[in-house]
Amino acid sequence: MNVHEYQAKQLFRDYGIPVPNGKMCTREDSVRNAAEELGGDTWVVKAQVHAGGRGKGGGVKVVRSVEEAEKAAEDILNLRLVTKQTGAEGREVRKVLVEEGVAIQKELYLSMLVDRASNAPMIICSEAGGMEIEEVAAKTPEKVLQEPVDPALGLRSYQSRRIAQALGLTGPAVRQAGKMLGDLYRLFVEKDASMLEINPLVVTESGDLIALDAKLQFDDNAMFRHKDVLALRDIEEEDPLEAQASEVDLSYIRLDGNIGCMVNGAGLAMATMDLIQYVGGTPANFLDVGGGASAASVEKAFRIILADRRVKAILINIFGGIVRCDRVAQGVAEAAGNVDLKVPVVVRLEGTNAVEARKILEGSTIDFVVANNLRDAAEKVVSAL
Amino acid sequence: MDSRGKTNKQEQGIDMGILVDETTRVVVQGITGKEGSFHAKGCMDYGTKVVAGVTPGKGGQEQEGVPVFDSVKDAVDREGANTSLIFVPPPFAADAILEAADAGVRLIVCITEGIPVRDMIPVYHHLQGKSVNLIGPNCPGAITPGKAKVGIMPGFIHLPGSIGVVSRSGTLTYEAVKQLTDVELGQSTCIGIGGDPIIGLRFVDLLGMFAEDEQTKAVLLIGEIGGTAEEEAAQYIIDTKYPKPVIGFIAGKTAPPGRRMGHAGAIVSGGKGTADEKQKVMEKAGIAVCPSPDAIGKTVQEAIA
C-alpha cells in the first residue's frame, strides 16, 4: 500500500524525524492561509500523487510570495501530471503540499527495504542525492552504500556511524543521523513498511539534517494490524477498476491491451498474458480469480473485465486441479448469463472432468469458444478480435 | 552440499525423489479448518501417511480419521510425525512454523498465503543451521508421484518418473506438470517453493538435492519476475558445473514494472527482475529456456533427447 508524501511526513513527525513544516491543501483550501501560517519568504508547492518523478513532470514549484504560491497550487491542481510512473494518460492532481522552503547545503539519498538476498532489512544510502538511485548505482556504484541490518540485533550504533561517514556528514549532523536512523528503523519495523525512501535527505545551510521528501510503502499482508495506516489509503489514487477488484478480493491489474484475461493463479495468469502476446495479441489485464474459481468469483471477474471498455474479447483459462472443471464450467455459464456479454469468450478448462466441462459449455445458450489447450486458446482469442 | 540439503532418505541411501516419500508422516496444523481438513483428506487419498492434526484447544478430537492434538510436539511424540503441513491463518502462521521446527519435524510445508514479511524474517533466520527444511509459505507444497503428496496440488496430473520440477508458482506448475505427463515424461519430485519475498528452500537448495538424487535425470525450473532466485540458480549451475540438464521458464514478460502481479514477490522494481533479464542470465548458464508457456513439455523433451 502506498501513502502520500504529506502522510509519510506526518508519520515521520510522529517518530521524531525532522521534516519541513507543511500543510496539505485541496482545491477547497486556502493556499494563501497555509503559506501565511507557515511564514517565511520561500515555499515549495508539491503535487501529492502516488507516483515518483513529480519534479520532472512539473509537479513541484519553488515560490517566493503567497501570490506565487496560490498561482503555483492552482497550476498544479489543474495539471494532468505525467511522469514515467503514471503512463502517458497522466494522473489528476487532487492535493498539494505547501511547505516552508529549506536552504540546502547538500542533497543525500537514504532508503530502507527488505533485501531478498539476505532476507533482512537493508539500508541504502548515497551522498549523491536528488537523483534516481538506480542511475547513481549504475554509473557510480562506489557512491552507494548498502548496509544490511541483522533483524535480531536491530540497527547498531556503529552502522549508523558508517552510514553517516558514507554520506560525508560532519559535525552535529553525525549525531543527528544516528538518532534519525534509529527512529526511521523503528518506524520501518513497527509499521510493517516494505519500502522507505528519502530523496533528498538534506543538510541545511545551518548544518542540520532534515527529510525534504518522504516515501513510504507498506506490506499489504500486515495491514490487519495497522488500522491507523490503513486509514491513510487514498482510493482516488488507485485505478477505479483495481480498487473495485480489491473490494471483492480479486487480484486485478489493468494493462493497455484489448484481450481480457481471467485465470486461476498468479503464475498461470502471467504465463497466459505472455502467450497472448507471443501469438500477436495484447492483454487488457492481469486477473487472478483464485485457486477455486467459484461461480461467484467468476461473475465478479466478468463484471470487472467488462467494465474496461477497451476489452474486445475474453480468454478464460482455468486449471481445475482441486476444483472440478464441470463445476467451473457451470459457474462460467451461469455468470456469463448474469452479465451482459457482447464480446466473444474463449474458454480453456483443464483438469478433472474436462470433457464434461466442455459439454456444459457447448450446450450453454451463450456462444462460448471452447479451446483444446493453452496455445489453441490464445490463438482463438486473438482471431476472435 | 550443506547438511540442510540432506534428507533422511538420502542418508539411508534410498534413491527415489527428494523431501517427501513413503517414510513421510504428516501432521496437519490447522486440520479442523475448512482448507486443512479438505487437503488432509486429499493427501490421504493420494496415499500419504497423514498421522495427526493440530488445532490448539481442540486436542482429543478426531478429524478425517486421525487424532487432533493441542501441539505439534504431542503429534511428534505420540504419532511419530516427521513432516508438518500448515494451513494456519496468516496472523498465526509464523508461530506455527516455529512450533513445528521446535517439535523436531524434518520438513515443514507452509501453504498459508498472506503472512507479513516482518513475521517471516525472524523465522527464516531462526531456521538457518537447523536440520529442518521449510517449503513456502504461499506455496502448493511437494509431491513425489506415486509415493506421497504433501500439499494442495491435484495428484492425478502427475506421473512417476525422472524430471525434478521446482516452481515459484501454483497452477502454472500444474500446467507444466500436465505438459510433461502428456508427453510421458514422469516426475521424480515436484516442489512449489512459494510466491512470497521470504521463503524457505530456494531454487539453489533444490538444485543441490536434485543433483544428488539418482532418480532425477533433469530439472525443470519455473520462475517468474521479481527477486533474484533465477539469477542465483544460474550462477549455481555455472559454479557447480551442474551435472544434469536444466530447463527453465519465466512467467511475466508482459508484466508492467512496479506492479505486484498477485504474488507478493512478483514485482519488477527499479528495472530489476524482468523476465528478459532473467532469461538471458539463464541461457548464459546453459539452461534451455522455454520460448512460450505452451512449449514447456516439448522443450524438456528436446533438452534430454
Question: What's the gist of this structure?
Answer:
By secondary structure, chain A is α+β, with helices and mostly antiparallel strands. Helix content of chain A is 36%, strand content 25%. In chain A, strands 7, 8, 9, 10, 11 and 12 form a six-stranded antiparallel β-sheet that branches. Chain A has a four-stranded antiparallel β-sheet with strand order 1-6-2-3. In chain A, strands 14-16-17-18 form a four-stranded parallel β-sheet, with helices on both faces.
Describe the fold and architecture.
The complex is a heterodimer of chains A (385) and B (305). Chain A is α+β, with helices and mostly antiparallel strands and 385 residues long. Chain A folds into three domains: 1-20 and 103-237, D-amino Acid Aminotransferase, Chain A, domain 1 (2-Layer Sandwich); 21-101, 2-Layer Sandwich (Dna Ligase, domain 1); 238-383, 3-Layer(aba) Sandwich (Rossmann fold). Chain A has 13 helices and 18 strands. In chain A, strands 7, 8, 9, 10, 11 and 12 form a six-stranded antiparallel sheet that branches. In chain A, strand 17, helix 12 and strand 18 form a beta-alpha-beta unit. In chain A, helix 8 (240-247) runs antiparallel to helix 10 (295-307) and helix 10 packs across helix 11. Chain B has 305 residues and is of the alpha/beta class. Chain B has one domain (3-24, 82-304): Rossmann fold, CATH 3.40.50. Helix content of chain B is 34%, strand content 21%. Chain B contains ten helices and 14 strands. In chain B, the strands form two sheets. Chain B has a seven-stranded mixed sheet with strand order 3-4-2-1-5-6-7, sandwiched between helices. In chain B, strands 9-8-11-10-12-13-14 form a seven-stranded mixed sheet, with helices on both faces. Chains A and B meet through helix 9 and helix 13 of A and helix 2, helix 5 and helix 6 of B.
